[in-house]
Design goal:
With 186 residues, this protein is mainly α. The chain has helices at residues 3-19, 37-52, 54-69, 90-108, 115-142, 146-153, 157-177. Helix 2 runs antiparallel to helix 3 and helix 2 (37-52) packs parallel to helix 7 (157-177).
């Protein structure tokens, strides 16, 4: 990986860490907190993935999660260590990697970037894909049915849709204003 790509990937690892400073919101009905870090997943896909390619969006999430795995408390609420991957939110964390990849893939192949296109890509990757991994693991770890986990997860949707709107707005503005506006050779 050339230095410029390493720098951009590192920047999104840092964004994920910075978003982890914001305290989580625990709703009491589920042990999985609401955090701003899914916003970082969506930005990694829609900005980094759109310019460098989807694998770089996924790599940024893998590096971030490896850093968390070795014990740095970078998840919202100061959580870290391998144990977070074996709790109710573990599937959501793993879903970040594929979610960023899917968003990056869709954005990388967009002909005319628009708010609506990025919004749809962020809904698909940042919500549907992340939930696809998160809900079954949450059900397993909480010893409940997948149907009950789906119902519990509905409380996250309003916040996730707000994050999709924010990420899509930022991505459109960044793609039109930053110097890396042309796709880099991958």
């Amino acid at each position: 990986m050339e230095l410029k790509k390493i720098m951009y990937v590192s920047m999104f690892v840092a964004i994920m860490a910075a978003l982890g400073v914001v305290p989580p919101i625990f709703l009491g009905i589920t042990p999985v907190p609401i955090t701003l870090q899914t916003l970082g997943v969506m930005l990694a896909g829609s900005v980094l993935g759109a310019r460098l390619g989807p694998k770089y969006a996924a790599i940024s999430q893998i590096i971030f999660l490896l850093i968390v795995m070795i014990g740095l408390p970078l998840l919202s609420g100061g959580r870290g260590g391998i144990g977070v991957f074996f709790g109710p939110s573990g599937g959501y964390l793993i879903g970040w990697v594929l979610g960023a990849y899917v968003i990056g893939y869709l954005c990388y192949h967009m002909k005319n970037v628009s708010f609506m296109k990025i919004l749809l890509a962020s809904i698909l990757g940042g919500i549907l894909v992340v939930y696809l991994f998160g809900i079954p693991i949450q059900a397993l770890m909480m010893d409940i049915s997948i149907a009950k986990a789906v119902i519990l997860s509905l409380v996250y949707l309003p916040g996730d849709f707000i994050k999709v709107i924010v990420a899509s707005s930022l991505a459109v503005k960044l793609q039109h204003s930053i110097p890396m506006a042309k796709r880099m050779n991958v």
